[in-house]
Amino acid sequence: MNIMNNTVKNTFHNLPEQKRDMIVQAAVKEFASKGYQKASVNAIARELGIAKGSLYQYFANKEALFLHVFETFTTLVRESVKKRVSSAGGRDFFILTRKVLMAGIDFIDRHPEYFQLYLRVLFELDVPRREELVAKVRLFSGEYFGPICEQAQKGGQIRKDIQPQMVIFILDAMMDRFLQAYAEPYLDGGLGLSVKSGRELADAVDSVMQVLQDGLSV
Amino acid sequence: MNIMNNTVKNTFHNLPEQKRDMIVQAAVKEFASKGYQKASVNAIARELGIAKGSLYQYFANKEALFLHVFETFTTLVRESVKKRVSSAGGRDFFILTRKVLMAGIDFIDRHPEYFQLYLRVLFELDVPRREELVAKVRLFSGEYFGPICEQAQKGGQIRKDIQPQMVIFILDAMMDRFLQAYAEPYLDGGLGLSVKSGRELADAVDSVMQVLQDGLSV
DNA sequence: GTGTATTATGACCACCTGGTCACACTATGA
DNA sequence: TCATAGTGTGACCAGGTGGTCATAATACAC
User: Taking the domain A4-216, which CATH number applies?
Assistant: First the structure.
């Protein structure tokens, strides 16, 4: 996991944890708000109040810094989902997907910058190793949801006249878009997800899940 | 419609149509493949084989060029949908949405660069007047789908225990993602939409629409 | 206190950007 | 044929970029 192409130098690992966190935090903020290309190493150094040369003492180049930041994101998201979902072990398929969706909302609440970073990677074409990074997160819906879907289909919870991959696609699409709308208000088409109270938000989640359930079951 | 902030200069309108098309074509290609910020006016001029100064004789600045390009996109998409959808006048709600989806696929087939441009505007935060531009296209789902949804809800085609805006959101989300997956294969989670034959593609559309219909009706 | 290894620094580099402008070119009309 | 108006041009500008490197500061061992 931490091979990192040895582009992250030892000097960085030798740093006190607090300073490392500061650096990653500043970097994720810059990358999330500007995107990879427009993000400026100068700006990150300025924000941190350190010399640019120092950053290049920690990381081989801009790309290495970015990849490290994204790496911390993926570990963060995996931990979050695992913690939030696997806790209560409901076997019901739709209860599970509902939990994943709620975990996503929770993640955005806790780490909005990281989610925005993810969106940038998703939709900026000139991000280094973009497909690889996207795949790392998508692995989620593929590897994680895949078997669960199949099982639910065999178990009779999901209709059988539809490709398993299509089920995953539909779930993934709805959940992804829901989260995007939550994180980026202009995407929700007037639903106002991001300003809803916890109660209203839960209702919205229920609405979506209900439609999916009715559409996917039988 | 063509007020354009007078940032498009007369010299451009005076150009022979063929040359204007060439310029727009080169610009959309550059903006679509690089995104607004990284797109280079130099590169566009180079591609066209004309001097950069000429471009600035046609447009006040990079932003004006970009806005003009996007303008041609919006008119293009409106024409396409209108032509494709309004022709056969089925009143059935789900048949209509299916037609809109097929029109989207058709548009991507015909103008892949324009669709990619749209995706960039959608997901790059530092595009000039981004929200305004997105709204122009979203108007589609809002103004166009809105009344249709309400009517379908009153007419009993769509369940009434769900907010009309939520119906629009769900439709919009699914269709948008479907088209994105069709245009950008890495988004489809292994479905392989973009390489499907016409028959298989139609089947995929049917699958999605069937789930939506079953989920939204009653 | 001295010497050595590690880290911090910012001036500097080559390169590219969006945008300008004085000048060259061309077409038109008299 | 000449003058004028409109168009094309590319060297040039200031500003920003990612990246380098000689030097300064520091930490640590003895």
Answer: 1.10.357.10
Give residue-wise pLDDT tens across range B166-217.
998 999 899 989 999 999 887 777 788 888 888 999 999 999 999 999 998 8
Q: Chain B 36-65, CB below 8 Å of chain A: which residues?
A: 37-38
CA angle in degrees (0–180, nearest 5) for B156-B161-B164: 75
> In sequence order, which residues have a C-beta less than 8 Å from that of residue B39 and are 6 or more positions away?
B30, B31, B33, B62, B66
| pLDDT score of A9 | 94
Long-range Cβ contacts of B107-111 (<8 Å, 24+ apart): B107/B76, B107/B77, B107/B80, B107/B81, B108/B179, B108/B182, B108/B183, B110/B80, B111/B76
Give CA–CA dist A107/B25, Å, rounded: 41
Is the pLDDT at A111 greater than 50, yes or no? yes
Question: Cβ(B37)–Cβ(B83) under 8 Å?
Answer: no
User: Does residue B46 reach within 7 angstroms of strand D, measured from its CB?
Assistant: no
Q: Which amino acid would we find at residue B31?
A: F
Rounded to the nearest integer, the mean pLDDT of chain B is 88
Mean local confidence (pLDDT), A16-44: 95
Residue B41 CB burial class (10 angstroms; 0-12, 13-18, ≥19): middle
Q: What pLDDT score was predicted for residue B13?
A: 93
Q: Given CB atoms, is A209 within the 8 Å cutoff of chain B?
A: no
